[in-house]
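Side project, low priority. Logging it here so it doesn't get lost.
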Amino acid sequence: KWGSIATRGHRDELIPHIGTSNGSRNPRRNYLIDLPPRFPAEFPRDFDSKNYTEKDNTRLAYNAYLKKFLRCVRGIDDNLARLFKHLEETGQMDNTIIIYTGDQGFMLGEHDFQDKRWMYEESQRMPLLVRYPKSIKPGTVIDSCVENVDFGPTMLDMAGLKVPASMQGKSFKKHLETGKEPEGWKQTAYYRYWMHMVHHDNPAHVGIRTKTHKLIYFYGCNYDGGYQTPPGWELYDLSTDPHETINLYDDPNHAELVADLKRQLAETRKRVGDDGSHYPAAEKVVQEFWDYDLKDRQKAQMISREFLKRREAELKAGKRNIRTHQGFQEASYPE
Protein backbone atom coordinates (compact mmCIF):
# COMPACT_ATOMS: atom_id res chain seq x y z
CA LYS A 1 0.00 0.00 0.00
CA TRP A 2 0.95 3.65 -0.16
CA GLY A 3 3.29 5.19 2.39
CA SER A 4 5.36 3.72 5.20
CA ILE A 5 5.68 3.81 8.96
CA ALA A 6 7.04 7.33 8.45
CA THR A 7 3.83 8.63 6.89
CA ARG A 8 1.27 6.26 8.41
CA GLY A 9 2.72 4.96 11.69
CA HIS A 10 3.37 1.35 12.67
CA ARG A 11 -0.31 0.42 12.57
CA ASP A 12 -1.63 3.52 10.82
CA GLU A 13 -1.78 5.36 14.15
CA LEU A 14 -0.03 8.43 12.72
CA ILE A 15 -2.36 8.96 9.77
CA PRO A 16 -4.15 11.72 11.74
CA HIS A 17 -0.86 13.48 12.47
CA ILE A 18 1.23 13.52 9.29
CA GLY A 19 0.59 16.09 6.56
CA THR A 20 -1.98 18.88 6.37
CA SER A 21 -5.40 17.48 5.46
CA ASN A 22 -8.38 18.92 3.62
CA GLY A 23 -10.95 17.77 6.16
CA SER A 24 -10.50 16.96 9.83
CA ARG A 25 -8.11 13.99 9.45
CA ASN A 26 -5.24 15.97 10.98
CA PRO A 27 -6.62 17.79 14.05
CA ARG A 28 -3.58 20.11 14.19
CA ARG A 29 -3.18 21.04 10.54
CA ASN A 30 -6.25 21.03 8.33
CA TYR A 31 -8.02 23.46 6.04
CA LEU A 32 -11.33 22.92 7.78
CA ILE A 33 -9.83 24.74 10.78
CA ASP A 34 -7.75 27.31 8.94
CA LEU A 35 -9.90 28.47 6.03
CA PRO A 36 -13.39 29.37 7.36
CA PRO A 37 -12.11 32.23 9.60
CA ARG A 38 -9.90 33.57 6.80
CA PHE A 39 -12.31 33.20 3.90
CA PRO A 40 -15.86 33.07 5.32
CA ALA A 41 -17.35 34.05 1.96
CA GLU A 42 -16.21 30.71 0.53
CA PHE A 43 -18.38 28.80 3.02
CA PRO A 44 -22.13 28.72 3.70
CA ARG A 45 -23.49 31.55 5.84
CA ASP A 46 -22.95 30.96 9.58
CA PHE A 47 -20.88 27.91 8.74
CA ASP A 48 -20.34 25.41 11.55
CA SER A 49 -18.57 22.18 10.63
CA LYS A 50 -20.57 20.31 13.27
CA ASN A 51 -23.66 20.69 11.10
CA TYR A 52 -22.09 18.87 8.14
CA THR A 53 -20.79 15.40 7.43
CA GLU A 54 -17.06 14.78 7.17
CA LYS A 55 -17.45 14.27 3.42
CA ASP A 56 -19.25 17.60 3.01
CA ASN A 57 -16.76 19.41 5.24
CA THR A 58 -13.86 18.04 3.22
CA ARG A 59 -15.53 19.09 -0.02
CA LEU A 60 -16.23 22.60 1.27
CA ALA A 61 -12.68 23.10 2.57
CA TYR A 62 -11.13 21.66 -0.58
CA ASN A 63 -13.22 23.82 -2.90
CA ALA A 64 -12.52 26.94 -0.84
CA TYR A 65 -8.79 26.40 -1.11
CA LEU A 66 -8.87 25.38 -4.76
CA LYS A 67 -10.77 28.55 -5.69
CA LYS A 68 -8.12 30.69 -4.01
CA PHE A 69 -5.35 28.69 -5.66
CA LEU A 70 -6.85 28.96 -9.14
CA ARG A 71 -7.47 32.68 -8.71
CA CYS A 72 -3.76 33.09 -8.02
CA VAL A 73 -2.99 31.10 -11.15
CA ARG A 74 -5.40 33.26 -13.14
CA GLY A 75 -3.70 36.38 -11.78
CA ILE A 76 -0.34 35.10 -12.99
CA ASP A 77 -1.79 34.23 -16.40
CA ASP A 78 -3.41 37.65 -16.78
CA ASN A 79 -0.18 39.47 -16.00
CA LEU A 80 1.85 37.23 -18.28
CA ALA A 81 -0.60 38.16 -21.02
CA ARG A 82 0.13 41.84 -20.35
CA LEU A 83 3.86 41.18 -20.56
CA PHE A 84 3.58 39.16 -23.77
CA LYS A 85 1.39 41.83 -25.34
CA HIS A 86 4.02 44.45 -24.57
CA LEU A 87 6.78 42.29 -26.06
CA GLU A 88 4.74 41.77 -29.22
CA GLU A 89 3.85 45.45 -29.57
CA THR A 90 7.51 46.46 -29.18
CA GLY A 91 8.78 43.78 -31.57
CA GLN A 92 10.74 41.95 -28.87
CA MET A 93 8.70 38.77 -28.53
CA ASP A 94 10.91 36.56 -30.69
CA ASN A 95 14.08 38.18 -29.35
CA THR A 96 13.23 37.33 -25.74
CA ILE A 97 14.00 34.08 -23.95
CA ILE A 98 10.90 33.20 -21.93
CA ILE A 99 11.28 30.64 -19.14
CA TYR A 100 8.12 29.72 -17.27
CA THR A 101 8.64 27.61 -14.16
CA GLY A 102 8.08 27.46 -10.41
CA ASP A 103 10.11 26.74 -7.30
CA GLN A 104 8.27 23.45 -6.77
CA GLY A 105 5.07 21.62 -7.56
CA PHE A 106 2.04 21.56 -5.27
CA MET A 107 -0.18 19.02 -3.55
CA LEU A 108 -3.88 19.66 -4.06
CA GLY A 109 -5.41 16.81 -2.10
CA GLU A 110 -3.36 13.89 -3.40
CA HIS A 111 -2.89 11.41 -0.52
CA ASP A 112 -5.07 13.93 1.37
CA PHE A 113 -2.08 16.29 1.56
CA GLN A 114 -1.88 19.99 0.82
CA ASP A 115 0.90 22.43 -0.03
CA LYS A 116 4.45 21.46 -1.06
CA ARG A 117 7.37 20.03 1.01
CA TRP A 118 6.91 16.44 -0.16
CA MET A 119 8.98 14.34 -2.52
CA TYR A 120 5.84 12.89 -4.06
CA GLU A 121 5.38 13.68 -7.75
CA GLU A 122 2.83 16.48 -7.44
CA SER A 123 5.15 18.39 -5.13
CA GLN A 124 8.58 17.48 -6.48
CA ARG A 125 7.99 18.06 -10.17
CA MET A 126 7.94 21.62 -11.46
CA PRO A 127 6.40 23.21 -14.55
CA LEU A 128 9.08 24.17 -17.07
CA LEU A 129 8.37 25.82 -20.42
CA VAL A 130 11.01 27.61 -22.49
CA ARG A 131 10.34 29.74 -25.58
CA TYR A 132 13.00 31.14 -27.88
CA PRO A 133 12.06 30.48 -31.52
CA LYS A 134 15.50 31.53 -32.79
CA SER A 135 17.02 28.30 -31.48
CA ILE A 136 14.25 26.20 -29.90
CA LYS A 137 11.83 24.38 -32.19
CA PRO A 138 8.21 24.81 -31.04
CA GLY A 139 6.73 21.64 -29.58
CA THR A 140 10.08 20.23 -28.48
CA VAL A 141 9.71 17.90 -25.48
CA ILE A 142 12.61 16.59 -23.41
CA ASP A 143 12.42 14.00 -20.65
CA SER A 144 15.84 14.59 -19.10
CA CYS A 145 16.30 14.91 -15.34
CA VAL A 146 16.54 18.67 -14.84
CA GLU A 147 16.79 20.34 -11.42
CA ASN A 148 16.31 23.93 -10.32
CA VAL A 149 20.08 24.27 -9.80
CA ASP A 150 20.34 23.91 -13.59
CA PHE A 151 18.27 27.02 -14.30
CA GLY A 152 21.02 29.55 -13.56
CA PRO A 153 23.69 27.89 -15.72
CA THR A 154 21.17 27.51 -18.56
CA MET A 155 20.22 31.20 -18.46
CA LEU A 156 23.87 32.25 -18.49
CA ASP A 157 24.64 29.84 -21.32
CA MET A 158 21.73 31.07 -23.44
CA ALA A 159 22.86 34.65 -22.84
CA GLY A 160 26.34 33.76 -24.09
CA LEU A 161 27.98 34.16 -20.69
CA LYS A 162 30.44 31.89 -18.94
CA VAL A 163 29.03 29.62 -16.25
CA PRO A 164 31.08 29.95 -13.02
CA ALA A 165 32.70 26.73 -11.85
CA SER A 166 31.19 27.36 -8.40
CA MET A 167 27.66 26.71 -9.67
CA GLN A 168 26.36 23.21 -8.93
CA GLY A 169 23.99 22.91 -11.86
CA LYS A 170 24.62 22.31 -15.56
CA SER A 171 23.21 24.05 -18.60
CA PHE A 172 20.50 22.19 -20.52
CA LYS A 173 20.73 24.57 -23.50
CA LYS A 174 21.71 21.74 -25.85
CA HIS A 175 18.66 19.75 -24.79
CA LEU A 176 16.41 22.64 -25.79
CA GLU A 177 18.12 23.27 -29.11
CA THR A 178 18.43 19.66 -30.25
CA GLY A 179 15.53 18.00 -28.45
CA LYS A 180 17.97 15.29 -27.40
CA GLU A 181 19.74 14.43 -24.17
CA PRO A 182 23.54 14.81 -24.47
CA GLU A 183 25.69 11.83 -23.61
CA GLY A 184 26.81 11.83 -19.99
CA TRP A 185 23.87 13.87 -18.68
CA LYS A 186 22.78 13.01 -15.14
CA GLN A 187 20.16 10.31 -14.72
CA THR A 188 18.87 11.28 -11.27
CA ALA A 189 17.33 14.22 -9.44
CA TYR A 190 18.07 14.90 -5.77
CA TYR A 191 15.56 16.06 -3.16
CA ARG A 192 15.88 17.26 0.44
CA TYR A 193 13.27 18.63 2.85
CA TRP A 194 14.71 19.61 6.22
CA MET A 195 12.10 21.74 8.07
CA HIS A 196 10.90 18.78 10.09
CA MET A 197 7.18 18.89 11.01
CA VAL A 198 7.11 22.70 10.84
CA HIS A 199 4.53 24.17 8.46
CA HIS A 200 2.41 21.27 7.27
CA ASP A 201 3.50 18.35 9.48
CA ASN A 202 5.96 17.03 6.89
CA PRO A 203 8.65 14.71 8.30
CA ALA A 204 12.19 15.57 7.20
CA HIS A 205 13.27 13.45 4.26
CA VAL A 206 15.78 13.02 1.48
CA GLY A 207 15.66 11.03 -1.71
CA ILE A 208 16.57 10.39 -5.30
CA ARG A 209 14.48 10.10 -8.46
CA THR A 210 15.35 8.45 -11.75
CA LYS A 211 13.20 8.49 -14.87
CA THR A 212 11.47 5.32 -13.72
CA HIS A 213 11.81 5.04 -9.93
CA LYS A 214 11.88 7.08 -6.76
CA LEU A 215 13.48 6.28 -3.41
CA ILE A 216 12.45 8.39 -0.40
CA TYR A 217 14.08 8.21 3.02
CA PHE A 218 12.08 9.79 5.83
CA TYR A 219 14.75 10.06 8.52
CA GLY A 220 12.32 12.04 10.67
CA CYS A 221 14.20 14.50 12.88
CA ASN A 222 15.25 18.13 13.00
CA TYR A 223 18.83 19.35 12.59
CA ASP A 224 19.45 18.76 16.29
CA GLY A 225 18.28 15.16 15.99
CA GLY A 226 15.14 15.96 17.97
CA TYR A 227 11.34 15.78 17.73
CA GLN A 228 11.65 12.40 16.08
CA THR A 229 9.02 10.78 13.93
CA PRO A 230 9.49 7.15 12.85
CA PRO A 231 12.13 6.71 10.13
CA GLY A 232 11.04 4.80 7.06
CA TRP A 233 11.81 4.15 3.40
CA GLU A 234 9.56 4.25 0.34
CA LEU A 235 10.19 3.04 -3.21
CA TYR A 236 7.87 3.70 -6.14
CA ASP A 237 7.90 2.45 -9.71
CA LEU A 238 6.85 5.57 -11.61
CA SER A 239 6.45 3.73 -14.90
CA THR A 240 3.70 1.45 -13.57
CA ASP A 241 2.54 3.48 -10.56
CA PRO A 242 2.76 7.18 -11.49
CA HIS A 243 0.52 8.22 -8.59
CA GLU A 244 2.73 6.45 -6.04
CA THR A 245 0.15 4.19 -4.47
CA ILE A 246 2.28 1.08 -3.79
CA ASN A 247 5.45 1.22 -1.69
CA LEU A 248 7.82 -1.44 -3.06
CA TYR A 249 10.66 -0.98 -0.58
CA ASP A 250 10.09 -4.32 1.16
CA ASP A 251 9.42 -6.25 -2.04
CA PRO A 252 12.26 -8.82 -2.38
CA ASN A 253 12.11 -8.44 -6.15
CA HIS A 254 13.33 -4.86 -5.76
CA ALA A 255 16.13 -5.48 -3.24
CA GLU A 256 18.91 -4.96 -5.78
CA LEU A 257 17.29 -1.78 -7.06
CA VAL A 258 16.96 -0.44 -3.50
CA ALA A 259 20.64 -1.12 -2.85
CA ASP A 260 21.66 0.60 -6.08
CA LEU A 261 19.48 3.66 -5.42
CA LYS A 262 20.81 3.92 -1.87
CA ARG A 263 24.33 3.88 -3.28
CA GLN A 264 23.45 6.63 -5.75
CA LEU A 265 21.73 8.63 -3.02
CA ALA A 266 24.80 8.45 -0.77
CA GLU A 267 27.08 9.47 -3.64
CA THR A 268 24.80 12.35 -4.61
CA ARG A 269 24.68 13.69 -1.06
CA LYS A 270 28.47 13.88 -1.02
CA ARG A 271 28.66 15.39 -4.50
CA VAL A 272 26.27 18.25 -3.73
CA GLY A 273 27.72 18.95 -0.29
CA ASP A 274 24.70 17.70 1.65
CA ASP A 275 26.56 14.90 3.38
CA GLY A 276 25.39 15.74 6.90
CA SER A 277 28.73 17.08 8.11
CA HIS A 278 27.18 20.46 8.96
CA TYR A 279 24.54 18.88 11.21
CA PRO A 280 26.10 15.82 12.87
CA ALA A 281 23.21 15.17 15.27
CA ALA A 282 20.75 14.79 12.40
CA GLU A 283 23.25 12.81 10.35
CA LYS A 284 23.64 10.37 13.23
CA VAL A 285 19.93 9.57 12.89
CA VAL A 286 20.22 9.36 9.09
CA GLN A 287 23.00 6.79 9.35
CA GLU A 288 21.38 4.86 12.20
CA PHE A 289 18.38 3.87 10.08
CA TRP A 290 20.13 3.71 6.70
CA ASP A 291 20.33 -0.09 6.53
CA TYR A 292 16.87 -0.47 8.05
CA ASP A 293 17.42 -3.92 9.50
CA LEU A 294 15.16 -5.61 12.04
CA LYS A 295 16.62 -3.65 14.96
CA ASP A 296 16.08 -0.38 13.10
CA ARG A 297 12.49 -1.28 12.31
CA GLN A 298 11.75 -2.22 15.91
CA LYS A 299 13.12 1.10 17.10
CA ALA A 300 11.09 2.92 14.45
CA GLN A 301 7.98 1.25 15.84
CA MET A 302 8.82 2.53 19.32
CA ILE A 303 9.42 6.02 17.96
CA SER A 304 6.02 5.86 16.29
CA ARG A 305 4.32 5.03 19.59
CA GLU A 306 6.29 7.71 21.46
CA PHE A 307 5.49 10.34 18.86
CA LEU A 308 1.79 9.51 19.07
CA LYS A 309 1.89 10.05 22.84
CA ARG A 310 3.70 13.35 22.36
CA ARG A 311 1.29 14.59 19.72
CA GLU A 312 -1.79 13.61 21.72
CA ALA A 313 -0.37 15.41 24.77
CA GLU A 314 0.26 18.52 22.67
CA LEU A 315 -3.29 18.48 21.34
CA LYS A 316 -4.72 17.97 24.81
CA ALA A 317 -2.74 21.01 25.98
CA GLY A 318 -4.08 23.04 23.07
CA LYS A 319 -0.67 23.40 21.42
CA ARG A 320 -0.96 23.69 17.64
CA ASN A 321 2.27 25.50 16.76
CA ILE A 322 5.10 23.50 18.27
CA ARG A 323 8.75 24.42 17.84
CA THR A 324 9.74 21.29 15.96
CA HIS A 325 12.67 22.43 13.82
CA GLN A 326 15.16 23.00 16.65
CA GLY A 327 16.10 21.37 19.93
CA PHE A 328 16.45 17.83 21.14
CA GLN A 329 13.83 16.06 23.22
CA GLU A 330 14.96 13.17 25.38
CA ALA A 331 13.29 9.91 24.44
CA SER A 332 12.88 6.62 26.24
CA TYR A 333 13.92 4.32 23.41
CA PRO A 334 15.83 1.29 24.73
CA GLU A 335 19.00 0.37 22.89
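Brief comment: The longest strand covers residues 213-218.
Revisit when time allows.
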